[in-house]
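Let us work through a complete example step by step.
Step 1: write down the sequence.
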Amino acid sequence: MKKNNILYRIIIFAVITAAILLFNFKAKADLSNGLDLQITKWDNFYSGNDIHFYYLDPKNVNLSKLKTKYGLSKLIDVKADQFENSLKIMKYINQNVDAKSTTMTSDKNALDIMKVAFNGSKISDNDYTIALGECLNSVGVNARLGVLQCTDKKVKGKSYFNVCEIWSDKYNKWIMIDGVNGCYMREKGVPLSATQIIDKGLTKVQIVNLKDTSKYIKKMSSFYESYSIYVDNNKYGELKSNSKITYLKGKQLPKIETKEGFIEPTIFVNKPIVFQISPRIKYVNKGKEKIPTLIFAKGNIKSDTNKIENFTVVVFMNSYMVKNYFISINGAGFIKVDLFYNLQIVKGTNTIKLSMDGKV
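Step 2: predict the structure and record it as tokens.
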């Protein structure tokens, strides 16, 4: 999502309703009795494929240093497919790195992460995925970071797990790699993407490179509920977007609050179309979308009270933030919004309606 300097002149009509239930509100520091903010209805799923994704540049100086320092070019076969080479890079890293999902995350770049990891320090699944992703991009493999989410309150520890997806020309698709556990999934010999695994179910696919798949299924099944990727994967470039895309299977409703707090600005989808976009295709904004989409971002927590949660709302369409739209809260009249809307969610039931022309 990025800011658009073009004023929309086409008047269209669209109403999107999101009913949000806030109950048993407590301080955000105390989630021991469960999550407080619950979405009970959501008609705001994005159904298009007009998203401009951004990826790392293999020629970036940091990636060049990474490739040279660890001799990554010598590990791959230039004639082989990206997926085969990805497994070779993963194997090399796993021979030298100890990664655990329970380890604290540093959020450093791959050079810093690899340095401490190769010296014997344990790293988190997030740091591992950053290292693997940058190593793969350094040798010309399009890789993106992904996050699997769990909503089961009985699962101990954090509510997410980090993985990588790589683009394969041979299979013409994204393929998920769980590098921390050194495995990937396939069906009938074809490697699968994260959304495919979620749709099919972890127990219905073949888990490759693991001796004890039953242990993995028991430990990881709850995380294959939903999957998120970043719009902007180019951490070394100018930030183009701070939004994520999250895929929800079937009739799942979005979760905007987790064990760790409120989620980042997110576009929710229940069809995997946008996850299938090839990084080989140059983005062209066709401007054909007619239905806008709401995005919620947590507002200033200092302004929150025991009865009010503050959020910032923006609207996007055709991969741009939209100027001049209308918002109605709890059945009240529509309010014209220039770009950002400061939303207050109060204790009880809240209804939010979006319109492009201020009419019901």
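Step 3: interpret the result. Residues 256 and 263 are 5 Å apart (CA to CA).
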